[in-house]
Design goal:
alpha/beta; Rossmann fold; Sulfate adenylyltransferase; 3 domains; single chain; five-stranded parallel β-sheet; six-stranded mixed β-sheet
């Protein structure tokens, strides 16, 4: 480390520090390594406004997506009039120093409409803004202290300058970048082969391994799949490099960003697919973007960016010829096959063999290994309801049924048990309740990730915390929310400890259902009312529904 950088690091140790989240680390890395050139820091207010409204920086450079640093109000209250802050990763290592130019509160509605064309929270970019992002932005230039740490696939991570040197050494001039956030299958392979042949070009397979769309295959599995497919390309015709990009799923605008990034990497062409970087369907089950919106926008700006677009042809398999061809080249009445992402997930969840015509055997094995059938995956069953609703009784009953079934280890995280062993220092304020529920979610996520079944039975009165846990756990396995919808009067009638009476007398503050609200679940997979049904019958109903959902194997009748 040179003296100048050492001095900066020494200074940084005494600066107010902001701990970066996953998206911020991705953004910071791409700013520092030149992938986001010409950005030299997080956007200030003027550049932010210009990007929203004009898709340009104040210097006139095309830039479609705002790259911002969001921070909490609590953090702002600690920095006083500081001119610089240190940016740290999750382990506390300083990555960079930011010189503050601007601090402001963004208008999320304006940002959503301008960038994503919608305020529908079903759009992951919009959802992130409203439900994850902090309410303050800090803009300013950056000075690097160190590169972000990566422990995985170090040989596959390259900066733009490193990639360009490799291209020069290989003598590559025409280079097609192929953007992907999912595993490659035979259709993708055939498409890239055709493009390489038509353009006399080489291929940079450049998959995203930062934040992608919720529910996507994890990047470790995807990388193994890419490595298998790389063996199928002609020798020295293609290379694989991982891009730590945090995708916004911003459709047309994001397509421009992807093109700018690949230009910075020295590519001459970029494959752009139908509904490129699209997030799927909105709340009315309509696509957020048209199928060719991204292609049309990139076509408008490709000369300015300095990169040529290769339209993604929708490839289909023709059994008669045993070949993949563009769908518009298939003669009328000729049979062809496709397999959608939804259908593939169905194959995996039911343990059905993936068709050989669809993907390579090695890729199929990787997907089957990392996505076992539902009845072999980890699972969280999350009970919620008022005190006295019957949650604990039903949770205990279900635990016994699952232990009897015996396919996976089962752990009960009852509200009282957790309060004793995990959250004993917490009170019952809204903030403390939120912390408690998210702690339960974290423990359940670890159990689920490792193939066990977690049964949770807290009150969990707030939808935001239940949604947080659902999002966290659904990435790792199954999640079933059970709302025990027992009327308040029945819960009070059952109250052996007299807590409801004390709450109505004002002797217990912040008591859910009396002086504190309970937000009824809107997305519960199972709803039961224990008022007039025995616990045994309700447990039978719950267990049967879990079986029907595929998470438990149906019990085979004994042979007579």
């Amino acid at each position: 480390m040179n003296q100048l950088n050492q001095n900066l690091k020494d200074l940084a140790n005494h600066l107010p520090s902001w701990q970066l989240n996953d998206r911020q680390i991705c953004d910071l890395e791409l700013i520092l390594n030149g992938s986001f050139n010409p950005l030299e820091g997080f956007l200030d207010k003027k550049n932010y406004d210009n990007v929203l409204r004009e898709m340009r920086l104040t210097n006139g450079s095309l830039w479609p997506i705002p790259i911002t640093l969001d921070v909490s109000s609590e953090f702002l209250s600690t920095i006083d009039n500081a001119e610089k802050i240190a940016l740290r990763d999750k382990e506390g290592f300083i990555i960079a120093v930011l010189t503050i130019d601007d601090i402001w509160k963004p208008d999320f509605e304006e940002e959503s409409m301008n960038v994503f064309g919608t305020t529908d929270h079903k759009h992951p970019g919009v959802d992130y803004l409203y439900n994850t992002s902090h309410k303050n932005y800090i803009g300013g230039s950056l000075k690097k202290i160190s590169d972000p740490l990566h422990y995985d696939h170090k040989s596959l991570r390259h900066s733009p300058s490193q990639i360009k040197k490799i291209f020069t050494k290989k003598g590559w001039e025409n280079i097609i970048a192929f953007q992907t956030r999912n595993p490659l299958h035979k259709a993708h392979y055939e498409l890239t082969i055709q493009a390489m042949n038509e353009l006399n070009a080489n291929l940079l397979l450049h998959p995203v391994v930062g934040m992608t769309k919720p529910g996507d295959v994890n990047h470790y599995t995807r990388t193994r799949c890419y490595q298998h497919v790389m063996k199928e390309y002609p020798k020295n015709s293609a290379m694989l490099s991982l891009l730590p990009l945090a995708m916004r799923m911003g459709g047309p605008r994001e397509a421009l960003l992807h093109a700018i990034i690949r230009k910075n990497y020295g590519c001459t062409h970029l494959v752009v697919g139908r509904d490129h970087a699209g997030p799927g369907m909105d709340s009315e089950n309509k696509p957020f973007y048209g199928p060719y919106d991204a292609q049309n926008m990139l076509r408008e700006f490709e000369s300015e960016i300095g990169i040529n677009m290769v339209p993604f042809k929708f490839m289909v398999y023709v059994p008669k010829t045993k070949k993949y061809v563009p769908v518009d080249e298939v003669e009328k009445e000729v049979e062809y096959k496709t397999l959608s992402g939804t259908e593939l997930r169905d194959y995996l969840s039911k343990g059905k063999e993936i068709p050989e015509w669809f993907t390579f055997k090695a890729v199929a094995r990787e997907l089957e290994r990392s996505n076992p059938p539902l009845n072999q995956r980890g699972l969280t069953v999350f009970f919620t309801g008022l005190s006295g609703s019957g949650k604990s009784t039903l949770a205990n009953g279900l635990m016994v049924r699952l232990l009897e079934e015996g396919s996976r280890p089962v752990t009960l995280l009852d509200g009282d048990i957790v309060r004793t062993h995990l959250s004993s220092e917490l009170g019952f304020s809204k903030d403390h309740r939120s912390i408690n529920i998210r702690r339960i979610g974290y423990v359940a996520s670890e159990i689920t990730k490792n193939g066990g079944i977690a049964i949770c039975a807290p009150i969990a009165p707030y939808e935001i915390d239940r949604a947080f846990n659902r999002s966290l756990i659904s990435e790792l396995g199954g999640f079933i929310e059970i709302y025990v919808n027992t009327p308040l009067e029945k819960c009070e009638e059952r109250d052996a400890k007299g807590l409801y009476a004390l709450a109505r007398e004002g002797k217990i503050k912040e008591f859910t259902g009396i002086s504190d609200p309970y937000e009824e679940p809107k997305k519960a997979e199972i709803v039961v009312d224990s008022s007039n049904e025995s616990p045994e019958k309700l447990v039978d109903q719950i267990f049967s529904k879990i079986v029907d959902m595929g998470y438990i194997s149906k019990v085979k009748e004994k042979e007579s």
